[in-house]
Amino acid sequence: MNLELVHQQAVGSDHSTPLLFIHGMWHGAWCWQEYFLPFFSQRGYDSYALSLRGHAGSDAHDGLRWHSIDNYVNDIEWAASQIGRPFAIIGHSMGGYVVQKFIESHHALAAVLLASVPTTTVWPATFRVLRMHPFSVIKAISTLRMYPVVETLQLAQDALFSKTMQANAVKKYHAAMQNESFRAYADMLGLNLLHPKRVKTPVLVIGAQDDAVIGVSDVKATAKAYDTEAVIIPSVAHDVMLEAGWKSVADRMLEWFSEKGL
Questions:
Q1: Considering its fold, how many domains does the chain have in total?
Q2: Residues with Cβ within 8 Å of residue 225, at least 6 apart in sequence
Q3: Distance, CA of 97 to CA of 80 (rounded, Å)
Q4: Which of 51, 123, 212, 231 could lock onto 56 through a cystine, CB 3.0 to 4.6 A?
Q5: What's the pLDDT tens digit per position in 69-104?
Q6: 4, β-bridge pairs
Q7: Domain coverage including residue 229
Q8: CB-based contact 219:102 (threshold 8 Å)
Q9: Are 237 and 173 in contact (CB under 8 A)?
Q10: Among residues 152, 186, 240, 190, which one has the least CA distance to residue 67?
Q11: What is the CA radius of gyration of the chain?
Q12: pLDDT digits (tens, 9 = 90+) for 190-204
């Protein structure tokens, strides 16, 4: 099976720590390529973005519905073998859940959770989306397809983006979105629970003040589980890496990497 691993080489050699970015539901490596990969490579970090199996340029689209969180962890293991040296790992939304599963049993120099599905599972996020758009959630569950949650521009904007994001930007990002594994969603509901006490990796937990899906309370609960303090970035919504305020998120990550000597 071929997986897409996008690499943007560091400019200069300021840092020896590679960064590996893991996308969330409906996305692929593409979501990191506009802002985050250039930002961190320009600051001396070898930067990689993985498309999990069944996503974007990776194989196994046909079996997407039944790909599990453990399958996605296996994809990170493959990416780690390609990078070939210790790295820091960053996960957004579902990708944050996958990252948490990965660091339960694997070494990473550091982990960053961006608007991540919390340690308390995806139930709180499900209820939030259900209140906003009940029929889209009912359609997703009844068809075992997650795409109905974001299948229109309005649904995608309500769940993922700020109300002020320009329509042409929403249209561009929405065009790249796709279906998501229902099995992975079920895993996050409780079939494959997280175990934060197993984690030895330093963790930075970042949330978005205007996130309609992952609430500030969820972010703080995740931070507490890893014995740290949550960082809440104002004026950004769920897709923090594509929002107009993305640089506030990247700057906080960069500051933390510096604090950790990475």
A1: 1
A2: 118, 119, 196
A3: 17
A4: 51
A5: 999 999 999 999 999 999 999 999 999 999 999 999
A6: 51
A7: 4-259
A8: no
A9: no
A10: 186
A11: 17
A12: 999 999 999 999 999
